[in-house]
Design brief:
By secondary structure, the protein is mostly beta strands. A hairpin with a 5-residue loop joins strand 21 and strand 22.
């Protein structure tokens, strides 16, 4: 588990399905799972059968073998030094559908993603490493940042600017064909007149300053009765997490998140709760902020995935 000085500064889980966001950590690639680790995961007291675990692990190995060489990104501090005043910075990445690395950095940046203040001409493009800085943004207000590139599903990030630059970390974008596959896995078709939302819980880890993606967290979208779908979570302890959505789950598994498909456009709040208590510690750049109930304020746009809604659970 990576160590962090400040949770939102060193490690953030960033997820979406229409534009699926990876979970991000320090700028190091996580080691591949060993055969011993896979075998150990199969023998633990999990409700998942051995054949499914082995299938998930095989899919992960195949994806890693196809991973291209990445352009080397700037260190986070150096990128931040290029931002000043009301601005955002970060990185758009791509990774094969099947799993994401919850504690490492194994995805390559995407060059040429158009990053804009939503529905304006205040825009920039990601460089060859997928990194960007978007400046000249309105201050002291809620903002929406769009991410668009041909053949990729569109994504939206939300923030509330207060004078200083905000680090949006890493946004994992899926190709349109991969997005369709995810929707089909829950017997739905993509409706471009609606949007989608993914939210992820965080919790303090055992080490000082560390965080985990905890199990048994329930996520709801309000108002309305939109149903959350939860991902299968970690394939093996401490390793990557499966992208697969399991309609039978009623709460998160360790390493998992909640997904809302085909949501009507509009303003909502997301309640992330564990044992009936709202997870209300908010991360700048991962929603507009929290309301008086501790729910994260968000917005859904037609044809976009509202990405990276997160909160820290007690």
């Amino acid at each position: 588990m990576p160590r962090v000085g400040a949770v939102h500064r060193r490690w953030t889980a960033c997820l979406t399905i229409i534009a699926l966001v990876c979970a991000c950590a320090e700028d190091e690639a996580a080691p591949k799972p060993s055969n011993e680790a896979t075998k150990g995961a199969q023998t633990e007291g999990s409700s998942r059968d051995a054949s499914q675990i082995e299938g998930d692990a095989a899919a992960l190995r195949d994806a890693e073998e196809l991973q291209p060489q990445c352009a080397r990104p700037l260190a986070a501090g150096e990128l931040q030094n290029r931002a000043s005043g009301p601005s955002v910075f970060g990185m758009a990445v791509s990774a094969a559908l099947g799993s994401f690395d919850a504690t490492g950095d194994s995805a390559c940046g995407i060059e040429g993603v158009r990053v804009c203040l939503f529905e304006t001409e205040t825009c920039t493009y990601t460089d060859e490493a997928g990194q960007f800085v978007l400046s000249d943004l309105p201050d002291e207000t809620d903002i929406e940042i769009s991410f668009e590139k041909d053949d990729f599903a569109r994504s939206l990030r939300l923030a509330h600017l207060q004078g200083a630059p905000i680090d949006l970390r890493r946004l994992r974008m899926l190709r349109l064909s991969e997005r369709a596959t995810l929707f089909e896995s829950i017997d739905q078709r993509v409706d471009d007149e609606r949007g989608a939302v993914v939210a992820v819980p965080l919790a303090p880890g055992e080490a000082i300053g560390s965080v985990t993606i905890p199990a048994d967290v329930k996520i709801s979208l309000m108002p309305g009765d939109a149903r959350p779908y939860y991902s299968r979570g970690m394939i093996e302890p401490g390793g990557p997490a499966s992208d697969e959505l399991d309609p039978e789950l009623e709460a998160t598994r360790e390493g998992g998140w909640g997904f809302f498909a085909n949501v009507e456009p509009g303003d909502y709040t997301v309640r992330i709760e564990r044992e009936g208590v709202a997870c209300s510690t908010f991360f700048p750049g991962f929603g507009f902020g929290v309301d008086e109930l501790g729910h994260v304020r968000i917005r859904v746009r037609a044809g976009f995935g509202t990405a990276s809604i997160a909160a820290l659970c007690p």
